[in-house]
Every structure is written in C-alpha cells, then in structure tokens.
Design a protein that fits this description.
Length: 81
C-alpha cells in the first residue's frame, strides 16, 4: 500500500513540476519517476533545512513537488548541454 501512495504522490508532484517548469513534462512514466525521486531529494533538502510542511498527503506532495522541480530543472540543464 505504501508503494501505491509513493506512485500517486510521485505522479502528482511530477505532473505539477512539469507544468510549473513551463513544459509539457516528459510523459507519465518519467513524471512519476521524477516525482518519486523528487520526494527523496525534497525530503533530504527539507530535513537539511530543518523544516517540514506538514504531515499527510499534502505535506508529502509539497516536499516531492519541490524536489521534482529541482530535478526537472537539472534534467533540462543537462538536456541543453
């Protein structure tokens, strides 16, 4: 059940990051992967800063979204290079 919630949070966060970063995203599968990896990056970054936006789905989506935006930004930089 936890794995399913990771996929749902990853999908939402990856899709939001693709929309905010002015692009159509990379497709559903890559958006999910970027969202899940974004959750890891965001969790690490928020933990490093000592902040947490809250518990539950909304907090998880915010953390994953921030991490996914960072990952989308990095992937687009690498794609241009």
């Amino acid at each position: 059940m936890v794995f399913l919630s990771w996929i749902i949070v990853g999908l939402i966060a990856g899709w939001l990051a693709g929309q905010v970063m002015k692009g159509g995203g990379y497709g559903m599968l890559v958006d999910i992967i970027l969202g899940i990896l974004g959750g890891i990056v965001g969790g690490w970054l928020f933990g490093l800063l000592g902040i947490w936006p809250g518990r539950g789905w909304i907090g998880s989506i915010i953390v994953a979204f921030v991490g996914a935006v960072i990952l989308v930004w990095i992937t687009r930089l690498l794609k241009k290079a």
